[in-house]
Structure formats: structure tokens, C-alpha cells
Amino acid sequence: MGSSSSKPEASQPSHVWKASSPIGVSNDVVESLRSSSETDTSRAQTLELAVQARVASELRKLEAQESALLKAAQEKIAEIVPNPKEEAADQISRQTVSKEVEALRARLDKRKQLRPIPDSVETARGEVVKCLIEHDRRPLDCWKEVEAFKEEVRRLEKGWVDKVVS
């Protein structure tokens, strides 16, 4: 395994292939191949350089596309996220928000109800609200109260439908 070199020695004559039948290639082609100074190594180097140039151009193209996409994404973000200076001007105080909420509640209370809600529905609603306040971090624990409320509403709707249909 290492006793002989992997490169042919210069003293060994190059191998010439001699065909038993005439070659169908013109003498010009044969002469250009014989006179060519290009070797396998030089062809491989030329090919490698061409591949590297192609890869570099593709990388430049991809970098340009990515930078354009990044710029577009940054512009979209800039449109969506408000500027901190503008945000400070638009910021509403807590008291103003509280006043607006109270005004909206008063308007809702002034709206006349078409008919009073039955006590059973109101108590079921109250139970749901009470449970949600007690379990503010775990609202799924209130499933029983929610189901009771849904059942009360179902009974109310069924009564209304029966009244309308008959």
C-alpha cells in the first residue's frame, strides 16, 4: 500500500492506444488533441473555478433577495408599530378611560330592556360571574356553572319558541 507512488513517474512512457480498426476522427481533431497543452489537472481546475464563480453569483443573488425581503419586512413593521413619540401624544390617562367606561355603562343601563330576565337565568348568570371572579386564573374550573347557565337559557329560548309557534 504505500510502497509505490500514486503519480506516474516521468521515466515511464505515456500509454498510447492503438485501435485495431481505423479511427473515424479527422486528422485535425487528432492534431489539436496532441498539440493541446491542457491536462486533466488544468481541466479540473478550470471546471472548479467555473463552479466557484457560479456559486458565488448565486449567493450574491440570494443575498440581494434576502436583503430586499428584510427591508420590506422592516418597512411593514414600521407601519404597524407606532413611533414612541406619537404613542406618548396619543396615550390616554387612566382617569379618562375610566370616565369613558362609566359613560358607556350608563348608556347601556339607560337602554330599555324588552322584557325582564327571569330570576333563574339571572341567578345562573350571577353564579358564572362569581365563579369566574373566584377562579380568575383558572376559568375552566367554572364549567358546571356555565352549563347550568346554558341550560337556563335553553329553557328560556324553548319557552319563547313554543309561544311563537303556537
Structure description:
This protein is mainly α. Helices cover 68% and strands 0% of the residues. α5 runs antiparallel to α6. The mean pLDDT is 82.
What's the gist of this structure?
This protein has 166 residues and is mainly α. It has helices at residues 27-35, 40-80, 84-90, 94-110, 119-134, 143-165.
Descriptors:
single chain, 166 residues, mainly alpha, 68% helix, elongated
Helices and strands, with pairings:
Blueprint: H1 27-35, H2 40-80, H3 84-90, H4 94-110, H5 119-134, H6 143-165
Helix pairs in contact: 5-6
Q: Biggest β-sheet: count, sense, barrel?
A: none
Radius of gyration: 44 Å
Mean pLDDT: 82
Number of helices: 6
Structural class by SSE content: mainly alpha
What's the helix-strand series? HHHHHH
**Helicity level:** 55-70%
| Distance, first to last CA | 104 Å
Write down how many β-strands occur, each being a DSSP E stretch of 2 or more residues: 0
The oligomerization state is single chain
